[in-house]
Amino acid sequence: MTGDGLQACDELNLVILRRYEIQEHHQYRHYYAPAPHNRIVTAEKAEEEEEEEQKNITVTWERPILHARISVGARELDVINLHLKSRLPSDIKGQKLDQYTWKTASGWAEGFFIPPMKRVGQALEARMLIDKLFDVDKDAWIVVCGDFNAEFDEVKPSGGRLKIRATAGWQGVSCFPVR
User: Fold this and answer.
1) Bridge partners, 143 (sequence order)
2) CA-CA 20 to 30 A from 166: which of 2, 69, 102, 175?
């Protein structure tokens, strides 16, 4: 959504197709988890006055979390749709010869360092939203779906509030609550 919350962005939008009525919907991007900061060490040097600004970056994630509350009979279902950052390396200024060729191994390694920070930050924000929903209703029905860009065994759910059952989906693994 755009800053006013009224329009979709030009790209990287998430959607939820539904059969039942959507009661409310929200998008969250750095609402629960502020963007972390990182100091880039391999970026090509710029003018002296721009160098510090170029090297100290805010690591933001590209896609927000889409949350919808849907009426299902007499119950409400919270659907959280994610598209977590892929494993592809992030660009580092001056470290690529072209779209596919890195200038240095150090630039490539630093490019690979940033995506997990984004992916885990998005996952943290989703977890914090889930905790908020359970704080309001300890028996909440919550479904988290989307493209996690991770293998099922990479991140183990914990915290005692949610049991999950996994099923092999069309692309990867889908998880949903079991009562």
Assistant:
1) 79
2) 69
Both tokens assigned to 102: 């890195």
Could you tell me which residues come within 8 angstroms of residue 67 by beta carbon, excluding any fewer than 6 positions away?
A: 25, 26, 27, 28, 78, 79, 80, 81, 129
C-alpha to C-alpha distance for 103 and 121, rounded to whole angstroms: 28
Task: In whole angstroms, give the CA distance from residue 145 to residue 173.
Answer: 9
The pLDDT-based confidence of 177 (bands split at 50, 70, 90) is very low
Taking only the tens place, the pLDDT of each residue in 86-144 is 888 998 888 999 988 999 999 999 999 999 999 989 999 999 999 999 999 999 999 99
Q: Are 122 and 148 in contact (CB under 8 A)?
A: no
Residue whose token pair is 């200038």: 103
CA distance 6 to 80: 19
Distance CA 79, CA 143 (A): 5
The SS3 of residue 67 is: strand
Contact 75, 25 (CB under 8 A): no
Burial (CB < 10 A; 0-12, 13-18, 19+), residue 35, is middle
Displacement of CA 82 from its chain's centroid (Å): 6
What are the residue boundaries of the structural domains of the chain, listed by start? Answer: 22-177
Top-confidence residue, 53 or 140 = 140
